[in-house]
Amino acid sequence: MNTKDRILDVSLSMFSISGYEAVSIRDICGAVGIKESSLYYHFRNKQDILDSLMHKYENHISSLLHILQSASDPKEGEPSLDWLNIYFFDQYLFDPFCNRMMRLMLIEQFHNERIREAYERWLFVEPYQIQASVFAMLAKIGLVPEADATRMGHDFFATSTMLTFKYLLNGDLTQERKDAFRKEAHAYMELLFAQLGGNRNV
Amino acid sequence: MNTKDRILDVSLSMFSISGYEAVSIRDICGAVGIKESSLYYHFRNKQDILDSLMHKYENHISSLLHILQSASDPKEGEPSLDWLNIYFFDQYLFDPFCNRMMRLMLIEQFHNERIREAYERWLFVEPYQIQASVFAMLAKIGLVPEADATRMGHDFFATSTMLTFKYLLNGDLTQERKDAFRKEAHAYMELLFAQLGGNRNV
Amino acid sequence: MNTKDRILDVSLSMFSISGYEAVSIRDICGAVGIKESSLYYHFRNKQDILDSLMHKYENHISSLLHILQSASDPKEGEPSLDWLNIYFFDQYLFDPFCNRMMRLMLIEQFHNERIREAYERWLFVEPYQIQASVFAMLAKIGLVPEADATRMGHDFFATSTMLTFKYLLNGDLTQERKDAFRKEAHAYMELLFAQLGGNRNV
Amino acid sequence: MNTKDRILDVSLSMFSISGYEAVSIRDICGAVGIKESSLYYHFRNKQDILDSLMHKYENHISSLLHILQSASDPKEGEPSLDWLNIYFFDQYLFDPFCNRMMRLMLIEQFHNERIREAYERWLFVEPYQIQASVFAMLAKIGLVPEADATRMGHDFFATSTMLTFKYLLNGDLTQERKDAFRKEAHAYMELLFAQLGGNRNV
DNA sequence: GATGAATGAGTGTTCATTCAT
DNA sequence: TATGAATGAACACTCATTCAT
User: Fold this and answer.
1) Which of the four, A109, C47, C92, D51, has the lowest number of CB atoms within 10 Å?
2) Is the dihedral angle over the CA atoms D58, D59, D65, D71 positive or is it negative?
3) Touching check for A4 and chain B: CB below 8 Å?
4) With 0-12 CB in 10 A as exposed, 13-18 as middle and 19+ as buried, what is D181?
């Protein structure tokens, strides 16, 4: 990893825990192992680091969404818990970069308008829309009764949001927390699909 | 309001938006209208302001819980939407002091162990236990089937937590956000109790 | 002298020699004998020191002009070399504060518009107008032929300006330079009035 | 123009306005369009740029003096306003390089001994000697009475020095300022020679 | 000729805090 | 209760400069 990326990496780790203001350029450079003046070769100023992180996150997310979009295509039949585990949990919610960025947006939501909008968008608006389109798709392919799709989507959104804040954006992201999150999420999914009766590979 | 309380008030307003580190003694004193040196007559240091806020919040909450406990006593029959509106929404979630304190704990959750514990406790642990005891009570008085009490409690907790983070701890606490919260919460309650059939004054 | 005035005094000494940019807050505070942070109790920032000096100079000059105006009133007969020595030389051109301020304006004429205007005004515009009014007065009281007043004023202005730049705003303001200035100025005055013939107390 | 000359050109422009200290290597390289490290291929350090400028100026001046010396030789009869316009005004006082160098020496007169000496020499000593020799020559060829030569020389020096500081080393060197300078200088020359009576091509 | 990457020293400025009054 | 004056430590940042490529 080059110096610029190491600065970004270290900055994100620190910002996502202590907040932007509480982390000094000294702190970052000390952890990266460079002199303070060297940082300014790579970034115009402290704010530029934060902006670069936001930029990187937005790129990351949009490429992730592209993968998700094709992966969620129910060509192989139907969504499975594997899909949830691999794409949604491991590659997004549990992913260190994404997780730290969510924490950063959470605690720095008032830092500037860009972060506010990103926080609102990626923690609430987009997740809501994604579940809506997923459950609409499930209804279309007959896996979920049309009449229940909206309600089930709401519940799913509420539960995954609550679990995210409770386990993934609260304290250290330990294996215990990931496991607890996964366990409760899976239990909820079982319950959800149990309501539908029938046998399927959730 | 005396100087000490004005300092606390102003500090909370600022801390809950910008975070502890980003707010300086200068900022606080400027807003209160006193010189920086005067602040040290009322507080030992900056941390002491934060500690006092936490102390005040804990007192506030415990007196609120006492009221709630007696008020939620189903002597008058059963819980109603009035109860939810008055005690839970207006006096807790929407209350400026409580709301700001929740924001403060949210964005300063890593500041020290006390705040971490309070955040964990008041945003996740206690709300979960309260709903659990409420739904247990509802089951005991026959309003809710024993078999459904746990699941309904879970769902209620997930929904109210999600709505809290989405509407009340995200951006300014405007009337629009309060209304949106109330509307969605009530709609959810209707749905929840509709599952039970029967007529009641929820 | 209080701290604020000592800061101004030291700053002027340094600014007028090395220029604003070349003098650091560290330099100033070192010479004054205070810590750098203490300076910011008295001045908002470095620029504020320069602004205060300009403000002080403008006040000083205008009060000086008031005195000059009444002093130059030819009630006692006519202007004399004493008047020139006391009011114009000693209290203005040779005065350490005024002299340093002129140097400062000279070398910092491009620093900002305020200094540019002051430089233009106090080194060229006002001196020209003052000599014009003085020679007009001399003509009115018959000391100088009407026909020669304008030309003599021009010459006087040219000579005193040249001498000022050559001796008083060039290198250290030593006694030698002051003496050289006074000598040449007096010689010029003798010459000037010699042209008029007659006997007078110049 | 090669890179080295472009650096000198840009540096002089900036130094003569803001002063040596206020102009950074960054500023210069930004304006030239090279990276900071590249500058050190052409100059040993920042001071070396200033030294090169002084060196260039001294060369320029001495070659100018050679031309002047032969040109001022009254072989063609006598000095004319053309001579003044072409050699003294256009090629010296108004010349962008010379003008900027004079400003630089003016505002950086305390930077080091070399600049102090150059300032003293080229703004006061040499101009005084040149006029002295010119008027001596004029006296020798009978254009000016022996008795008046010294006084006229003094006056001429005073006026041209004053006009230089007032119009050419004060603010931007606009066409207006050049015109004002030329107009006043010519008017003064007319006056000076008018005193001598007779007819000549000044 | 020019540059990418780095650095030690220094810049102006703000920080929370102290203390005599 | 409140403030004027001060301070050590830290702040983000810029400086001129170096050196391998």
Assistant:
1) C47
2) negative
3) no
4) buried
State the nucleotide closest to B3 in CA–C1' terms: F1
pLDDT in tens, A59-81: 999 998 887 777 655 555 455 66
Per the domain annotation, does B105 fall within a domain?
A: yes
Tell me which chain D residues have a C-beta less than 8 angstroms from the C-beta of C110: 17-18
| Contact predicate B106/A106, CB 8 Å | yes
pLDDT in tens, A88-139: 889 999 999 999 999 999 999 999 999 999 999 999 999 999 889 888 888 8
Among left, alpha and beta (phi > 0; psi -120 to 50; other), residue C77 is left
Let me know: does D81 contact D189? Beta carbons within 8 Å.
yes
Which nucleotides along chain F are within 7 A of a protein C-beta? 1-20
Phi, psi of C173 (to 5 degrees): -85, 75
Dump the DSSP string for A96-142: HHHHHHHHHHHHTTTT-HHHHHHHHIIIIIHHHHHHHHHHHHHHHTT
Q: How far, in Å, CA of B37 to CA of B29, rounded?
A: 9
**Nucleic strand F under 7 Å from the C-beta of D45:** yes
CA dihedral angle for residue B156, residue B157, residue B159, residue B162, rounded to 10 degrees: 170
Name which of B120, B152, B162 to mutate to probe chain A: the one with the most chain A Cβ atoms within 10 A of its Cβ. B162
Does C124 fall in a domain? yes
Using the Cβ of B21 and the Cβ atoms of chain A, whether some distance falls under 8 Å is answered with: yes
**For residue A146, what are the domain limits?**
54-195
CA B116 – CA A17 distance, rounded (Å): 12
The residues near A109 (Cβ < 8 Å, ≥ 6 apart) are A115, A116, A119, B107, B170, B171
Q: Is the CB of C106 under 7 A from strand E?
A: no
Report residue A186: phi and psi, to 5°.
-65, -45
Query: Which residue in the block uniquely carries the two structure tokens 């002129």?
Result: C102
Residues 6+ apart with CB under 8 A from A99: A93, A168, A169, A173
Q: What is the pLDDT of residues D117-126, one digit of tens each?
A: 999 999 999 9
User: How far is D194 from D142, CA to CA, in rounded Å?
Assistant: 15
Structural domain count, chain C: 1
Q: Which of B107, B108, B165 sits opposite A161 (nearest CB)?
A: B165
Domain-embedded: residue A29: no
- Residue at D182 is within a domain: yes
A3 CB-to-strand E distance under 7 Å: yes
Model confidence at D202: pLDDT above 50: no
pLDDT tens readout for residues D17-63: 999 999 999 999 999 999 999 999 999 999 999 999 999 999 999 99
Mean pLDDT across chain A, nearest whole number? 89
**DSSP labels for B68-115?**
HHHHTSGGGSS--HHHIIIIIIIIIIS-HHHHHHHHHHHHTTTT-HHH
Q: Are D57 and C150 in contact (CB under 8 A)?
A: no
Taking the CA atoms of B44, B47, B50 and B54 in sequence, report the sign of the dihedral they define: negative
Position A115 scores a pLDDT of 97
Residue type, C32: V
